[in-house]
Write a structure and sequence with these properties.
alpha+beta, Beta-galactosidase, Chain A, domain 5, TIM Barrel, Immunoglobulin-like, 17-stranded antiparallel sheet, 6-stranded antiparallel sheet, 15 helices, 35 strands, globular, disordered N terminus, Glycosyl hydrolase family 31
Length: 705
């Protein structure tokens, strides 16, 4: 900070209204819970200019400097980097709802700076409430913590931002099964959606922008959020049932640096949960082939058809419907008369065996009476004398096993281990929630605690590449594979699957996969081109998750059948083989994800942040830093392809292409899926070798130690 700013700082400290005692007294500063905040920025300071209070933070620790500008009246907060706005609140952004009525901040009544924290006293639209507001700066980020002064507990408390000064917004995770705006701010996220640490949708309270700012709401409480609802250009970030709001704003030079910073604070994967083979080969799951009506004969025939036609896979997983009732954890004898024989045959064919399970217990299941009598089920939030009944996918409302009860956990695990031993079951697809907001938690536990306990429980089993859907910040530490919400069987679903995979990847989950190739949401059997194009796109992602057999499928609800031809099978087999050749390259990227939190599948702007065109590309992606996928996601046999800066090897044409450029109407018949390899990158050689083009590669030598 310059000498002029230092002089201003001196005058401020002597002349402003100091409110430090008041603000500390109300418990303004929340616990951070990490050593990341121990390093203070050198020479951060505060000065006043043009009626604003300005907190200036110089560059440090590889992060750029930034300023936080506080307008006094109306109260407003704007973050700048190099004189450019990167994040801006709306006027009166600190808002809260008390007993059904909304109130908001209006003006700054006084402020104080102690060399570490800028503290503000804010007036509100109600004379009965005030706000104690604090900004704590760090290199590349600052923490905002504020609390309400007054009686009562707020229904909601949070901040409102103007989306437009920040360019494009990303983050949040999954929006809907068939809806994923990319950028997020190009569509709408409406308030009222489930958004808490125990939801089924994989979402996290983290957002970032094309201006290289980021926002992490540091809470484990339920939230309410909207992005551009009714096209109003606003982002609302509210915490429910609290009088304290806490978020972190990241200010970096690129969006990728914002992501890296977020992962550095909240945690990178501690391990690679899927095995190498689960990256190398598809998982074949029976759901879209049989839906809720699998049979022993059907499953064996399914596996035999795959094996006899060279359709590789590491496991055949029997999805829902193998039990008579959910929670039985035993095969329905009418449909599976000899499970041991089925298991033996599947293993003879070279596949592991897996089963769908959840923590759901239907009231008329064989386990319900025992579980209820012994207190193994989560109690209802309104009446603790009875089990909490929660909605379940495609079935009746069910009770939930209380995994926070050690005896219940041991009981349930014993049933799973029994299945494994009795039938040689290698793993499970846990398709479940661990808690529901209708239920009553055990004393002292929160929704986030149940998610943690559930994740730790399933971590003791082989998830067979299907992973488990765990929401909220920090869940990426488990290193699970992350599959998407169910998709339908049409082109729109395939088009949504790509940005949804990017959304999951950029909130911290590197081991992503789409929903089952071809879809799984009870639609008609996918047409040939949808199935093939989906397989081709998935072959250029970290993992392949298969279900619909390219030999043919019949929808059990409608009887509609698609008997695919030999070409369908050959093209699907080719996609599997291409993915197998990429497995060593992908495995190296998986190791990087554990070492540094690096995504495997990422948007183009992560590698090319200075190229504006990359920020709205939603049907191309980088696989690592050397491979660019540009698959066909429509019925057309051609597409426009954006090629970023540099020299690229066109794998299908076997030619070099110079970017930046747009390849208009690039032809790609059904047998081809466009893919390019970036030259001169440290990953180039491995990528070129995977595509059998090693001789044409430009391979730099990695720098020495």
């Amino acid at each position: 900070m310059g000498s002029k700013s230092r002089r201003h700082r001196s005058s401020i400290l002597s002349g402003c209204v100091l409110l430090v005692g008041l603000l500390v007294g109300v418990g303004l500063v929340a616990s951070w819970g990490t050593r990341e905040w121990e390093t203070l920025p050198p020479a951060a300071g505060v000065y006043q200019k043009n009626g604003q209070i300005i907190l200036s933070v110089p560059p440090a620790s590889g992060s750029p400097g930034y300023e936080v500008k506080v307008a006094r009246e109306p109260f407003r907060v704007t973050t700048t980097r190099g004189g450019t706005n990167v994040l801006a609140s709306s006027p009166g952004p600190a808002r809260f709802q008390m007993r059904g009525s909304w109130y908001g901040s209006t003006k700054v009544r006084g402020f104080g700076w102690d060399g570490k924290v800028l503290r503000l006293d804010l007036a509100t639209t109600s004379p009965g409430y005030g706000i104690s507001y604090a900004i704590t700066p760090e290199p590349g980020r600052y923490r905002t913590t504020w609390s309400i002064r007054g009686t009562g507990t707020a229904d909601q408390i949070g901040m409102v931002y103007d989306l437009r000064p920040s360019g494009h917004w990303y983050g949040y995770g999954e929006v809907e099964p068939l809806e994923q705006p990319w950028p997020l701010s190009a569509g709408e996220v409406r308030r009222g959606k489930s958004f808490d640490p125990s939801i089924y949708q994989v979402r996290a309270p983290f957002w970032f922008t094309s201006t290289s700012a980021g926002l992490w709401v540091n809470t484990n409480r339920p939230m309410d959020h909207s992005t551009n609802e009714s096209r109003d250009g606003l982002g609302r970030f509210y915490i429910k049932g609290s009088n304290v709001y806490n978020d972190v704003t990241f200010v970096e030079s690129t969006p990728r640096a914002v992501y890296d910073h977020y992962i550095r604070v909240t945690g990178r994967p501690a391990k690679i949960d899927p095995s190498y083979e689960q990256f190398e080969k598809p998982l074949w799951n029976t759901w879209a082939q049989f839906y809720r009506t699998p049979t022993q004969q059907g499953v064996v025939g399914y596996a035999e058809g795959l094996a006899s036609n060279g359709l590789a896979g590491h496991a055949v997983q029997v999805d829902g419907g193998w039990e008579r009732r959910r929670g039985d954890l035993s095969f329905d004898p009418a449909r599976f008369p000899d499970p041991q024989a089925m298991s033996g045959r599947i293993h003879e064919l070279g596949y592991d065996l897996g089963l769908w399970v959840g923590f759901y217990v239907e009231p008329d299941s064989a386990s319900y009476a025992e579980a209820r009598q012994r207190g193994y089920l989560l109690p209802d939030g309104a009446d603790r004398s009875k089990p909490c009944m929660v909605p379940t996918p495609y079935e009746r409302d069910s009770a939930l096993v209380d995994l926070a009860n050690p005896e219940a956990r041991a009981w349930y695990e014993g049933k799973l281990r029994g299945l494994m031993q009795r039938y040689r079951v290698e793993g499970f697809k846990f398709d479940t929630v661990f808690f529901d907001k209708k239920c009553a938690p055990r004393s002292g536990l929160t929704q986030a605690d149940y998610t943690r306990i559930g994740a730790q429980f399933v971590d003791g089993f082989d998830l067979q590449g299907a992973g488990v859907r765990v929401p909220w910040w920090g869940s990426q530490r488990y290193g699970f594979a992350m599959r998407q919400m169910d998709k339908s069987t049409d082109w729109r679903s395939l088009q949504v699957a790509v940005p949804q995979a990017l959304a999951l990847s950029t909130i911290g989950h590197p081991f992503v996969t789409t929903d089952m190739i071809g879809g799984s949401l009870y639609g008609p059997p996918p047409e040939k081109a949808v199935l093939v194009r989906w397989a081709q796109a998935s072959s250029l992602m970290p993992m392949m998750y298969s279900s619909t057999s390219p030999l043919g499928v019949t929808n059990p609800s409608t009887g509609q059948t698609n008997a695919y031809d030999e070409e369908t099978m050959a093209l699907y087999r080719a996609a599997i083989e291409e993915h197998r050749r990429l497995a060593p390259y992908i495995w190296e990227r998986a190791q990087e994800a554990v070492a540094a939190g690096e995504p495997i599948m990422k948007p183009l702007f992560f590698d090319f942040p200075r190229e504006p065109a990359t920020y709205t590309v939603k049907d191309q992606w980088m696989l690592g830093d050397a491979i660019m996928a540009a698959p066909i996601l429509t019925p057309a046999a051609s597409r426009d392809i954006y090629v970023p800066s540099g020299t690229w090897y066109d794998v299908r044409r076997k030619t070099m292409v110079r970017g930046p450029a747009v390849l208009g109407s690039y032809p790609a018949p059904l047998g081809e899926s466009p893919v390019f390899v970036r030259q001169g990158n440290l990953q180039t050689c491995a990528a070129m070798a995977a595509f059998g083009a090693g001789a044409a590669a430009s391979c730099p030598v990695a720098p020495g130690p």
